[in-house]
Design brief:
The complex is a heterodimer of chains A (152) and B (731).
Chain A (H helix, E strand, L loop, with lengths): L1 E6 L2 E6 L6 H8 L18 E4 L2 E4 L12 E3 L12 H8 L9 H14 L5 H7 L9 H14 L2
Parallel strand pairs in A: 1-5
Antiparallel strand pairs in A: 1-2, 3-4, 3-5
Chain B lengths: L5 H9 L4 H20 L4 E4 L3 E4 L4 E5 L8 H13 L6 E5 L9 H6 L2 H4 L10 H9 L11 H29 L6 E4 L2 E4 L4 E4 H8 L28 H5 L15 E7 L7 E3 L3 H4 L4 E6 L3 E6 L2 H10 L3 E2 L9 H13 L5 E5 L2 H5 L5 E9 L11 E7 L2 E6 L4 H12 L6 E5 L16 H9 L6 E4 L2 H6 L7 E9 L5 E10 L15 E8 L13 H20 L3 H7 L6 H13 L9 E10 L2 E11 L5 E11 L6 H21 L4 E2 L2 E2 L18 E5 L17 H13 L14
Helix pairs in contact in B: 1-2, 3-7, 7-8, 14-15, 17-21, 20-21
The chains are: A alpha+beta (152), B alpha+beta (731).
C-alpha cells in the first residue's frame, strides 16, 4: 500500500493501490504534470519517464513494481540553470508545436543518447517510436543529431 | 483608445439578419470592457488587444488559442512590427473568454467589401463563415484565420494606431511637429535635439487619445518582425514540463472523473446499475447523463476501474443498421438518383461528355471518416460553488464554450467563468458545438461538491469523435481532339455542400459540381483543411488519370490547363523544378504531383514513393511549394507545412474510422495508426513570397499529400488508388 521510491532524486512514498499506473501516481500524488496521459496502453509514449535510467511508458508500469527504484521525469531532466542538452536543442530547433507529446519525446531521446551517444538515423528510427500528431519528427531528428554531433 | 468603428459596423451589416446589431454593439462596448478585464495600475490599454505598462512591457492579448500553430508569436510579430516595439519587451497572453475579445476581425476577413478583394468571399471556409453568421459571440480559432484575419485586420491596425497615438503624444509633450519624430524599438526620438521618450512614459496619455483615421500600414520593405524566424514564446515551457494543459489542472480537494457514452452516436442511456462501480475503492459517485455515465473518484485510475465495472445499457437511437460499406452504398445510390441538393458550374458538360470522338473517363473515389487524434484527450475541470461555475479547459472557442457552460448549468453567463488552457492539439476536434465534454463537465460539476476534473480515456476519444465525413465522389470528364479537358463533372455525397471551400484552378470550358446531401448518425465536423482534403484527393487524382488517358505528362497536362502568368502555375512550376520532375528514377519508384488551393493559400507537392515487396507504400521524399502571400514567421510556417504533409500522408496510408452496427470499430492507436518518426520522409518546403493577400498556413499543406502519393504509387505500380486509406490495396 505504501510504496517507497526515489522520484527526481528525492525519496517519496506513494499511498495508492499497487496496480495504479506510475503515470497517475506521479501526476495525482506528486503533482508532476509534465508527464502526460496520451493513451493508457503504452502505445503513444506521451507518459515516458526513466526508471533506473531506462525509458518506460509510465501508464503501463504499476506503481507496485517500482519500489526501491529511481524515477526521473521531465521536470528533472535538466534544471533552469543547467538544462539537458536536448532541451537546449529542442528550443534552438523550435521542435514543439502543440507540445503535449514533447515531455515523452525528450525522455525517449535522452535515454537513447545515454546508451548511444552518436545514433545513426536507423537507430533514431528504432528508438523514437513516440507519436506526435503535429508531426514534429523532422525537427526531433535534427535536434538529436545536433546534440550527438556537439558531444562528439 | 477608441479605434474608428465605422468599418466594423459595415462589416456587421454584411453578416446576416440578427447579427448586425450585436456585432456593432459588442465591438463598440468591447474596448472599455477589455480594458477593465486586462488592465491594472500603471498599465494602459489600446483597443483591448494591446497593453503598454509604465515599465515599457508590451502585452498583446490573443483572442485565438495557440495549439501549436505558433499564432500567438506570429500575431505579436504583426502588432509589434506596426508598433515599432522593442521585441525584448513583448509578451503574449491568452485573451479572456469574453465577448470583448470576439471574432470581429475574423468577421471582417469574411466580408468582401472590407478586405479589398471582392473574390475572397467565395474562397472562404464555409463552416467558419456560417458559424459567424448565425452566432456572433464567438472567439474561434479555425479556418486558418488567425493571421490572415485577426493579424492582418486587427493586430496590425491596432499596432499602427497605437504607434500614431504615441507619436502624437510625444509631439505634444516635446512641442515639436510629429514629422520630426521617429519611432523605433519602443522609443520615440526627436532627431534634431536627440530627446528620447519611452513608450512606457507616453502610454497613459496616448491611450486617452481618440484616433479617427485608419492608420497606414507598413509595406513589405518596412517590416522589422514580420517575415523573421523569431523564436516562439511557448516553447521553453513545452520542453521542461511546466506548460499547463487542460489535462494538468489541479484544484484543492479535487476529484477525478471519467465517462463512457453510448457507443452508437444518437443512442441514449437506458439503464445502469451503479453498484459495481461504487464497489471500487476510491469511487465516490456515479452520475447518469442522458447519453453517458460518469464515475467520480479520488483519482483517474479508480474512476476508470469504476467505469469498466459498469454494464450500462444504451439504445442505438435507430442507427444500429449503419456500417461503413452501407454508407458508401447509400451515397452511390443517392448520386444514382440524380437529384442533387446543390448544383454549380458553367457550360454544357453533357454536350462535352457526349461529343463525337470525345474520350470519356469515369471514376469513383471513396474516403473514410477520419479522426483528428490530438495527443491530449479531452479534459476539463469544473467547480460549482456559491452559485458560480468556474471551468478550466481547452477548446477552439473559449467564448462559445462559456456560453454553452451557462446554458448547460442553467446559470447566467455572468456567473460562469471559463479559463482557456493550452491545448494538446485540436485539428478541428475542439469546436464547442460538438465538444461533448463541455456539456458533461457542466452537468457533473453541478452535482459534485468539490472541484472535479473529467478526463476522457483514449478509447472514448477515438470512439466518440467528430470525424472528417466519410464521402464518395463520382467524377467524369471528356478529352477533346487536342487532348485537353472539354468537360468535367463532380458528383459527391456527404453532409456539407463544399462549394464555398473548394477551388478548381483549371480552365475547363464546361464544369458541373453537384452536391448530394447524405446524413449519417455522425456529427458533421471540421478536420484539418476540412472539405479540401477529400475534394483535393478527388480532383488531383482524377486530373492525373486524365493526363495518363491523354498520354501526357501529369505536370505538363496540369500546366496546359492553368492560366498563364498566374500564381497556380508559378507554384506548380516551382515544385516541378525543385523536385527534378522528369529526371530518371529507379524502377519501381514513382513521382506524383498535386496542386490544391485552400484557405487562400496555393500549395503543390511532388512525392517520390515506392512499394515494399509486402505491399507497404514507402515515401522517399516530399517537395512542397507554398504561396500564402507573406510568411509572418517562416520557420514556423515551414513547421506547419511539414506537419500538414505528414498528417496527410498518415491518413492516406492507414487511417480510417469505420462503423459496425452504428458504432465505431476503432479504439486507440493500435487500430488507428498515426505515422511515426521512422516513416516520416524528408520534406523540402519552399515559399513564394508576394504582395498577394495573406493566406492560411495551418491547413493548406495537407490536401495535396494524399493525391500526390496516390499519383506516385500509380507510376510505381500501375495500380490506381481510388479509395483511402491505401493500406492493404497494394499487397
Amino acid at each position: 500500500m505504501a510504496i517507497e521510491a526515489q522520484v527526481n532524486g528525492k525519496p517519496v512514498t506513494f499511498h495508492v493501490d499497487d496496480d495504479t499506473p506510475l503515470l497517475w501516481a506521479l501526476r495525482e500524488e506528486l503533482g508532476l504534470t509534465g508527464t502526460k496521459f496520451g493513451c493508457g496502453i503504452a502505445a503513444c509514449g506521451a507518459c515516458s519517464v526513466h526508471v533506473d535510467g531506462a525509458v518506460m511508458r509510465s501508464c503501463s508500469v504499476p506503481v507496485g513494481t517500482i519500489a526501491g527504484k529511481s524515477i526521473t521525469t521531465i521536470e528533472a531532466l535538466g534544471s533552469a540553470d543547467a538544462p539537458h542538452p536536448l532541451q537546449v536543442a529542442w528550443i534552438a530547433h523550435q521542435v514543439p508545436q502543440c507540445g503535449y507529446c514533447q515531455s515523452g519525446q525528450l525522455m525517449a531521446a535522452a535515454a537513447l543518447l545515454a546508451t548511444t551517444p552518436h545514433p545513426s538515423d536507423d537507430q533514431i528510427d528504432a528508438a523514437m517510436t513516440n507519436i506526435c500528431r503535429c508531426a514534429t519528427y523532422p525537427r526531433i531528428r535534427e535536434a538529436i543529431h545536433a546534440v550527438a554531433g556537439a558531444g562528439a | 483608445m477608441k479605434l474608428q468603428r465605422r468599418y466594423f459596423l459595415i462589416g456587421g451589416a454584411a453578416l446576416v439578419g440578427a447579427g448586425v446589431f450585436s456585432v456593432w454593439w459588442s465591438d463598440k462596448a468591447a474596448t472599455a470592457r477589455a480594458e477593465r478585464l486586462t488592465t491594472g495600475p500603471g498599465q494602459s490599454s489600446f483597443a483591448g488587444w494591446l497593453k503598454i505598462a509604465n515599465d515599457d512591457t508590451v502585452t498583446i492579448y490573443s483572442p485565438h488559442i495557440d495549439f501549436g500553430q505558433g499564432s500567438h508569436t506570429a500575431l505579436a510579430q504583426m502588432l509589434a512590427d506596426e508598433l515599432d516595439a522593442d521585441w525584448g519587451t513583448v509578451r503574449v497572453e491568452q485573451a479572456p473568454a469574453d465577448y470583448a475579445f470576439g471574432n470581429t476581425s475574423i468577421a471582417k476577413l469574411f466580408v468582401p467589401t472590407m478586405s479589398g478583394h471582392p473574390d475572397v468571399m467565395k474562397r472562404l471556409p464555409d463552416p467558419v463563415f456560417s458559424l459567424l453568421a448565425r452566432n456572433v459571440p464567438l472567439q474561434i480559432t479555425g479556418g486558418s484565420s488567425a493571421i490572415r484575419g485577426t493579424g492582418q485586420y486587427g493586430m496590425r491596425v491596432v499596432g499602427a494606431a497605437a504607434r500614431r497615438a504615441l507619436l502624437a503624444t510625444a509631439a505634444d509633450r516635446l512641442g515639436v511637429p510629429e514629422t520630426e519624430l521617429t519611432a523605433a524599438k519602443g522609443r520615440i526620438t526627436h532627431t534634431r535635439t536627440g530627446k528620447v521618450l519611452r513608450y512606457g512614459e507616453l502610454a497613459e496619455a496616448a491611450a486617452r487619445r481618440d484616433l479617427r483615421d485608419a492608420p497606414a500600414l507598413k509595406t513589405r520593405d518596412q517590416y522589422t518582425f514580420i517575415g523573421k524566424p523569431i523564436d516562439r514564446f511557448d516553447i521553453p515551457g513545452k520542453v521542461n514540463g511546466s506548460a499547463q494543459y487542460g489535462m494538468d489542472v489541479i484544484r484543492p480537494d479535487m476529484r477525478v472523473a471519467t465517462v463512457i457514452a453510448a457507443p452508437v452516436r444518437g443512442g441514449k442511456l437506458l439503464s445502469v446499475d451503479h453498484g459495481p462501480a461504487m464497489a471500487v475503492k476510491g469511487v465516490e459517485k456515479v452520475i447518469a447523463l442522458d447519453d453517458a455515465v460518469v464515475v467520480v473518484a479520488s483519482g483517474y485510475w479508480p474512476a476508470l476501474k469504476g467505469v469498466r465495472a459498469l454494464a450500462p445499457k444504451f439504445s442505438d437511437g435507430g442507427h444500429g443498421h449503419l456500417d461503413t460499406a452501407g454508407i458508401y452504398a447509400a451515397q452511390a445510390q443517392l448520386i444514382a438518383q440524380a437529384k442533387p441538393d446543390n448544383h454549380y458550374g458553367a457550360g454544357d458538360v453533357a454536350a462535352a461528355l457526349h461529343a463525337p470522338g470525345a474520350r470519356v473517363l469515369h471514376a469513383e473515389y471513396r474516403v473514410p471518416f477520419l479522426h483528428q487524434a490530438a495527443m491530449e484527450p479531452f479534459a476539463m475541470t469544473g467547480h460549482h460553488a456559491d452559485g458560480k461555475l468556474e471551468v478550466w479547459g481547452a477548446t477552439q472557442d473559449p467564448l462559445q464554450t462559456r456560453n454553452l457552460l451557462a446554458q448547460f448549468s442553467g446559470l447566467s453567463i455572468d456567473n460562469v467563468t471559463f479559463h482557456p488552457m493550452i491545448m494538446g492539439g485540436g485539428f478541428g476536434r475542439r469546436f464547442p458545438p460538438y465538444t461533448q465534454i463541455i456539456e458533461q463537465i457542466a452537468r457533473v460539476a453541478m452535482q459534485v461538491d468539490h472541484p472535479v476534473k473529467l478526463i476522457w480515456s483514449r478509447e472514448e476519444d477515438v470512439k466518440q469523435g467528430a470525424y472528417r465525413p466519410q464521402s464518395l465522389g463520382q467524377l467524369q470528364a471528356a478529352l477533346g481532339h487536342d487532348g485537353t479537358i472539354t468537360g468535367w463533372q463532380t458528383d459527391y455525397a456527404q453532409f456539407a455542400d463544399a462549394e464555398s471551400e473548394v477551388v478548381f484552378p483549371y480552365r475547363v470550358p464546361a464544369t458541373a459540381r453537384r452536391h448530394f446531401k447524405y446524413i449519417s448518425n455522425q456529427v458533421d465536423a471540421y478536420w484539418r483543411s476540412v472539405n479540401s482534403t477529400q475534394h483535393g484527393f478527388y480532383n488531383e487524382s482524377f486530373i492525373d488519370e486524365l493526363a495518363h488517358l491523354a498520354g501526357a505528362d501529369p505536370y505538363r497536362f496540369r500546366r496546359a490547363h492553368l492560366p498563364a502568368g498566374g500564381r497556380h502555375l508559378a507554384v506548380l512550376d516551382a515544385v516541378a523544378q525543385r523536385s527534378g520532375w522528369g529526371t530518371p528514377l529507379p524502377s519501381g519508384t514513382g513521382r506524383g504531383i498535386a496542386l490544391v488551393e485552400s484557405f487562400g493559400t496555393i500549395c503543390a507537392h511532388v512525392i517520390e514513393a515506392s512499394v515494399t515487396p509486402d505491399g507497404t507504400p514507402k515515401v522517399h521524399h516530399v517537395w512542397a511549394v507554398v504561396d500564402c502571400g507573406t510568411t509572418v514567421n517562416p520557420r514556423n510556417a515551414q513547421a506547419q507545412v511539414q506537419g500538414a504533409v505528414l498528417m496527410g500522408l498518415s491518413t492516406a496510408l492507414g487511417e480510417a474510422i469505420t462503423l459496425t452496427g452504428g458504432a465505431v470499430d476503432q479504439s486507440s492507436f493500435p487500430d488507428y495508426p498515426v505515422l511515426k518518426l521512422a516513416d516520416a520522409p524528408p520534406i523540402d518546403v519552399h515559399f513564394i513570397e508576394s504582395d498577394a493577400p495573406i493566406g492560411g498556413i495551418g491547413e493548406p499543406g495537407l490536401p495535396p499529400a494524399a493525391p500526390a502519393l496516390a499519383n506516385a504509387l500509380f507510376v510505381a505500380t500501375g495500380k490506381r488508388i481510388r479509395h483511402l486509406p491505401i493500406a492493404g490495396q497494394l499487397a
